[in-house]
Write a structure and sequence with these properties.
CATH superfamily of the largest domain: Hypothetical protein, domain 2
Number of helices: 11
Shape: elongated
Order of helices and strands: HHHHHHHHHHH
Number of strands: 0
Helix content: 55-70%
Strand content: under 5%
CATH architecture of the largest domain: Orthogonal Bundle
Radius of gyration: 18 Å
CATH class of the largest domain: Mainly Alpha
Structural class: mainly alpha
Length: 215
């Protein structure tokens, strides 16, 4: 019975939020699969707004993996410095560009197993790129917003992103896995924030158990 209630709650959550955000999209600016991958790697511990200020210069200098593979890591660092942990990000971007260029003929792999072999690419990043750029749904990207909302709404009891993803996947239709991430991210930023969730004005306040809120 408990699982059935969680499933019913998830269905209501998705129905209401997809009506609120009928065409949910990533707030990162990108045109190609490669650009989305790079932007998503840069978004770690950084806002989408900041990433969007950095990527125009980055893509102007190195449009694709072939160009970035030839770039000096210190030059990459200069461009992405304001995104934080830039030493690590520059190293991963350079290594990923070389791997994509030499092992995948300049094209991104199209499955989770191969995608997560790329330096700096874990399941969250891979899910975002596969779903948004390729229409391939192998899982649900779990970031800080999805983690917070999933726990507050009683969709999972875990704090482990891998476990949360496994808990969420059966609750939504596979073709909606990408949207499930987007609508929770957007809602988490707009209403169900970390410090001051707007519970009184929340369109889910009649079904949300508010687990952990106010504690």
């Amino acid at each position: 019975m408990a699982k059935k209630k969680v499933l019913e709650r998830a269905e209501i959550i998705y129905d209401r939020l997809i009506r609120r955000y009928p065409d949910p999209q990533s707030e990162l600016t990108w045109k190609t699969e490669w650009e989305l991958l790079v932007a998503t790697i840069l978004s770690a511990q950084c806002t989408d707004v900041r990433v969007n200020k950095v990527t125009p210069e980055l893509f102007k200098r190195w449009p694709g993996p072939e160009e970035l593979a030839l770039a000096d890591v210190t030059e990459i660092e200069k461009v992405i410095r304001t995104t934080g942990i830039y030493h690590n990000k520059a190293k991963n971007l350079s290594a990923t560009a070389k791997m994509v260029t030499h092992e995948y003929s300049g094209k991104l792999p199209r499955n989770m197993k191969e995608m997560t072999k790329l330096p700096g690419v874990a399941r969250k990043t891979a899910n975002i790129v596969l779903s948004n750029a390729m229409g391939i749904h192998e899982g649900i990207a779990v970031d800080t917003h999805v983690k917070r909302l999933s726990n507050r709404m009683g969709l999972t009891e875990s704090s482990n992103p891998a476990v949360i993803e496994k808990d969420l996947m059966p609750l939504f239709k596979r073709e909606n896995w990408g949207n499930a991430n987007h609508i929770m991210v957007l809602f988490g930023r707009e209403v169900c924030s970390a410090r001051k969730p707007m519970c009184e004005d929340c369109p889910l306040n009649d079904i949300c158990p508010r687990i952990g809120v106010g504690k």
